[in-house]
């Protein structure tokens, strides 16, 4: 032991150190009493600086109402006692006491991994914020097949609305058939009455996720992560000036973005082996149909047209007319007083079909048309560019004209009327107004 203590040794960091005999003896005693674990240094514990009573009160407040956050507990403590520890201190204390997590009496939700057994059994749809094109935000609507991870439908647009959703969903149905269910979130576009009608017409079960529980959309979220890491990382935002320099407008630039995305999906994503399934999405899609011995259920052109029409209900007036978005139409007089369904394309409000109890009563006759498209039907057209500045300062010109007018005005300048005696030239003085012998009988002062 003396020989070991007298020499130098390399520590874990490569430094040369000497170890005293007392340290060696202490390590030997620890090893003999507790084995190797006794030689492991104990974690350093700092004495708590916060009053234990305050921490206990905070814990009691948390136990009293487990939904209270650390911020809320701190707010209550400041109100009740005039002081509270920091939120981070309270969070550490709550974690030590295992007070964080689900409310008392509630078990944490356990979610098993789910995968549809067959292709077109379930699609999952969502929207992703894309790059800026000409200073305008873009949004990607996408629908992924849960079984194969094949991207059934997708499209970038300038708005996160129903029209852009339809632009992604309709080609997906035409190319890959009708799915059994579509799983979406609670965004406004996915809750629109048009989508409910379209799914009902095609026999698709529309399922919305529960607010605050996005676990069922894991596959589409993972796909969006791939899009960000492999596609969007190569796309740069552009400004209006960039488009002007390239000689393209917003619609053309958006078309190019969609063209590049189609190329990436079809040549890269669909043909690359998926790490979880062990197959490429395209191979897994085709293998699934081969196993089932059939092809996807394809909708007819008439079915798609009908599904993607919009409809609203109106009560026919006594004059056999109905109103639709500031337009007035004449309908069959037999429908007076009845609630009818008006079926139309959002891009053509001049052509409206009237239905009552699923029976068609022909086209409504336009009586007064002031709006030709639905308010929600905004095409992918660029916003109007701000007009070029003329450089004309109207107010400055007005002020200059006023100044010139004053300079040239030959009318009396009232500031020049007063003399040095503060009297207006030609004005009668008080002495002039005094009575004199020259006054006539009428009391008038003679000139």
Structure description:
This protein has four domains: 2-39, no CATH class; 52-96; 122-292, Ribonuclease H-like superfamily/Ribonuclease H (Nucleotidyltransferase, domain 5); 309-368, OB fold (Dihydrolipoamide Acetyltransferase, E2P) (Beta Barrel), CATH 2.40.50. It is extended and about 115 Å long. The protein has a five-stranded mixed sheet, with helices on both faces. Strands 8-11-12-13 form a four-stranded antiparallel sheet, with no helix packed on it. The protein has 14 helices and 14 strands. A hairpin with a 2-residue loop joins strand 3 and strand 4 (136-145). With 447 residues, it is of the alpha+beta class. Mean pLDDT is 84; it is low at 382-386, 414-418 and 438-447.
């Amino acid at each position: 032991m003396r020989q070991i203590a007298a020499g130098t040794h390399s520590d874990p960091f490569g430094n040369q150190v000497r170890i005293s005999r007392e340290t060696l003896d202490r390590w030997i005693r620890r090893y003999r009493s507790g084995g190797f674990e006794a030689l492991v240094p104990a974690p350093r514990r700092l004495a708590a600086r916060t009053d234990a009573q305050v921490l206990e009160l905070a814990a009691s407040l948390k136990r009293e109402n487990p939904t209270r956050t650390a911020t809320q507990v701190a707010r209550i403590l400041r109100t009740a006692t005039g002081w509270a520890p920091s939120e981070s201190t309270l969070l550490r204390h709550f974690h030590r006491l295992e007070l964080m997590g689900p409310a008392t009496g509630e078990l944490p939700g356990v979610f098993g991994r789910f995968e549809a057994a067959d292709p077109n059994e379930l699609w999952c749809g969502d929207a992703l914020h894309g790059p800026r094109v000409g200073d305008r935000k873009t949004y990607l609507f996408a629908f992924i097949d849960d079984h194969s991870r094949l991207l059934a439908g997708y499209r970038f647009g300038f708005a996160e609305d129903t029209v852009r959703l339809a632009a992604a969903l309709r080609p997906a149905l035409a190319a890959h058939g009708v799915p059994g269910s579509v799983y979406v979130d609670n965004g406004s576009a996915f809750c629109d009455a048009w989508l409910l009608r379209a799914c009902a017409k095609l026999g698709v079960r529309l399922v919305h996720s529960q607010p605050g529980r996005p676990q069922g959309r894991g596959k589409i979220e993972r796909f969006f992560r791939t899009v960000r890491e492999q596609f969007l990382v190569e796309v740069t935002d552009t400004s209006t000036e960039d488009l002007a320099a390239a000689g393209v407008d917003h619609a053309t630039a958006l078309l190019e973005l969609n063209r590049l995305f189609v190329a990436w999906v079809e040549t890269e994503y669909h043909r690359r082996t998926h790490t979880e399934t062990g197959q490429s999405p395209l191979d897994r899609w085709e293998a699934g149909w081969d196993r089932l011995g059939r092809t996807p259920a394809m909708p007819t052109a008439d079915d798609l047209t009908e599904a993607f029409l919009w409809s609203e209900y109106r009560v026919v007036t006594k004059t056999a007319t109905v109103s639709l978005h500031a337009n007035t139409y004449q309908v069959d007089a037999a429908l007076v007083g009845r609630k009818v369904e008006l079926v139309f394309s959002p891009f053509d409000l001049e052509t409206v079909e009237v239905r009552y109890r699923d029976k068609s009563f022909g086209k409504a006759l336009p009586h007064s048309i002031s709006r030709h498209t639905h308010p929600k039907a905004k095409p992918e057209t660029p916003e109007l560019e701000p007009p070029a500045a003329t450089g004309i300062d109207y107010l400055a010109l007005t002020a200059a004209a006023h100044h010139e007018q004053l300079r040239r005005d030959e009318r009396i300048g009232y500031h020049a009327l007063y003399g040095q005696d503060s009297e207006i030239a030609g004005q009668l003085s008080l002495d002039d107004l005094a009575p004199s012998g020259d006054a006539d009988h009428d009391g008038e002062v003679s000139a």
